[in-house]
Amino acid sequence: MTRTYTFRDGGLNSRLLRGLNLAGGALAGLGLSRPRLDPDAIVEAAIRRAGSAELGSGSFREPLERYCEAVEGEARLSTFGRVAVREMLVTTLARRIELEVWTREHPEAAEERIVRPWIIIGLPRTGTTLLSQLLALDPLARAPLQWETREPVPPPTLSHAHDDPRIEACSRQLARLESLNPAMQAMHPFGARLAEECVPFLMLDLRTLGLETQAYVPSYGRWLQGCDMAPAYEQHRRALQALQSAQPTGHWLLKTPNHLWALDTLKAFYPDARLIWTHRDPGPVVTSLASLNTTLQRTFSSHIPERTIGEEWKGKSLHAVELGMAWDAKAEAGWCVHVAYADLMRDPLGAVRSIYAHFGDEPSGLHERRCEAWLRERPQTLHGRHGYDPADFGWSYDGLVEEFGDYVARFGIEREKR
Question: Can you give the pTM of this predicted structure?
Answer without folding.
Answer: 0.93
